């Protein structure tokens, strides 16, 4: 990937070039590490959406189901 930056005329540091080559192959496709970063980021995003939606959706649930869900004090 560092070679591509050189061909495109970009000036990048050695550390940045090393990070790019760790996450993607020379043809631009993600490596196993890159796929892992993509999956972890996607999972973190979905989890954040769920955590943000709980306070909004909790009052809409029937009381029996609401009683089964552990909630932090103040929610």
Secondary structure: elements and pairs:
Elements lengths: L1 H6 L6 H10 L8 H26 L5 H6 L7
Can you offer a commentary on this structure?
This protein is mainly α. The protein has one domain. The chain has four helices and no strands. The protein has helices spanning 2-7, 14-23, 32-57, 63-68. The longest helix is centred in the middle third of the chain and has 26 residues, at 32-57. The protein is rod-shaped and about 60 Å long.
Gyration radius over CA: 22 Å
The helix/strand class is: mainly alpha
Order of helices and strands: HHHH
Low-confidence spans: pLDDT under 50, at least 5 residues?
none
How helix-rich are the residues, as a percent range?
Answer: 55-70%
Q: Describe the largest sheet.
A: none
Span from first to last CA? 47 Å
- Approximate shape: rod-shaped
Count every beta strand, where a strand is a DSSP E run of 2 or more residues.
0
Brief overview:
The protein is an all-alpha fold and 75 residues long.
What distinguishing features does this structure have?
single chain, 75 residues, mainly alpha, 4 helices, 64% helix, 0% strand, rod-shaped
């Amino acid at each position: 990937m560092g070679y591509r930056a050189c061909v495109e005329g970009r000036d990048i540091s050695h550390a940045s070039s090393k990070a790019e080559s760790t996450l993607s192959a020379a043809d631009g496709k993600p490596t196993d590490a890159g796929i892992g970063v993509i999956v972890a980021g996607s999972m973190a995003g979905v989890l954040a959406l769920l955590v943000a939606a709980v306070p909004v959706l909790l009052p809409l649930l029937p009381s029996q189901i609401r009683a089964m869900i552990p909630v932090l004090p103040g929610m």
